[in-house]
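Weekly sync, protein design subgroup
Attendees: M.S., D.O., the rotation student, P.L. (late)

Item 1: inverse folding check
M.S. brought a backbone from last month's batch and wanted to see whether the design step gives back something sensible before we order anything. D.O. pointed out we never logged the input encoding, so this time it goes straight into the notes. Structure tokens as presented (154 positions):
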């Protein structure tokens, strides 16, 4: 342990590359002021979104964000690579995969040629993504608690 170094990072940070707020460059700049590494996570997929039969505006909000991310993904990766050098911080490109049944998961990689890849369920997602990626869950699924959506907790 004597020669080990602790690295500080954030593996779940959003900005306006999908449906968040704030510029990508600002997110990286802010992270670089206090962290050794970060991800800037775009919202990308929600394969079971069709199971939501209400909350149409929220559904459309998410779908619009996913389209925005997919349309700009290659440019985002190029920008991240430049920002990594500019702000001297290790950046791990990442995206978020939503699921009512399995919960949300973030797919993270170190490569700037990282592809947006989904799966119909968590097992297919893990099978489909490149083998040098890792997946981090950040909350449980909602699928069996449909009544909670109707109460507006979602
Ligand atoms: Zn998130």
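Designed sequence read out in the meeting:
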């Amino acid at each position: 342990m004597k020669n080990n170094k602790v690295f500080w990072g954030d593996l779940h940070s959003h900005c306006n590359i999908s449906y968040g707020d704030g510029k990508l460059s600002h997110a990286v700049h802010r992270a670089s002021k206090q962290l050794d590494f970060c991800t800037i996570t775009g919202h990308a997929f929600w394969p079971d979104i069709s199971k939501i039969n209400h909350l149409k505006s929220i559904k459309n909000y998410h779908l619009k964000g996913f389209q925005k991310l997919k349309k700009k993904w290659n440019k985002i990766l190029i920008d991240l690579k430049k920002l990594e050098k500019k702000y001297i911080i290790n950046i791990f490109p990442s995206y978020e995969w939503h699921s009512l049944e399995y919960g949300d998961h973030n797919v993270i990689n170190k490569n700037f040629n990282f592809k947006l890849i989904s799966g119909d369920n968590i097992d297919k997602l893990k099978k489909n993504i490149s083998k040098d990626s890792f997946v981090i869950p950040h909350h449980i699924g909602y699928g069996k608690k449909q009544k909670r959506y109707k109460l507006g907790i979602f």
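Discussion: DSSP finds four helices and seven strands in the chain. The pocket of zinc ion is lined by residues 12, 14, 41, 96 (CB under 6 Å).
Action: P.L. to compare against the previous round before Friday.
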